[in-house]
Structures are given as structure tokens and as C-alpha cells.
What we know:
The protein is mainly alpha-helical. The chain has helices at 7-23, 27-47, 69-83, 96-110, and strands spanning 55-58, 87-90. The chain has a two-stranded parallel sheet with strand order 1-2.
Amino acid sequence: MRGHPQRRLIERALVSLLEISRGESDEDSWRLISGALADISEALAVFHSRRATRKITVFGSARTGPSDPAYAVAEELAAAAVAEGFEVMTGAGGGVMEAANRGRAVRAASA
């Protein structure tokens, strides 16, 4: 860690873990902390090559149908985001997320 450009932030993160360890002994809490750190590590690896690209994330009800105004808003939002250079990520479900995927795909195909 010596000489690392982010040494101070790393030290702050380690201090936070030590502070948590003083108050938490419950195994479920540590499973949660461990899982969260593993998720962060994986996300950093997955998105490393795309870190300079701005992104938005769209989540919403899978039960929202195409006739619902929220469906159209999600589709328009995603298309507008792509037009401005954003990547659109969704939970890949139906409803609002499906609408965002459609808006993203239509805009990307027309660009």
C-alpha cells in the first residue's frame, strides 16, 4: 500500500472496517459486509474498461404494462439518455425495465 496513489482512502476504508469490527460480532452482519465488499470488487472488475462512460440505471415495476404512462416515460428517458452518450442499465425485467431497454435499443439502432 505504501506509495499507492489512493493510500489515504484505503486507510479510511480499513479504519471503517476496524470500527465496525469493534461493534459487530454477529455472523449475519459479517456475511452482509463480506458480500457487499465482494459485490463491489466484482463490479469494479466488470466495469473497469467502461469506467469513463456515463451510465444510468433504471429499475421499476415488472407489472407496468405498455399502456401505463410510466412505460412511455421509461422508454423516452432511456432513448434520451443514449442520445446524450449514457449507457442504460436495467434489471432486465419486464415493465419499466423492458421499456427502458426498448428505448435504449431504438435510439442506439438509429444513431
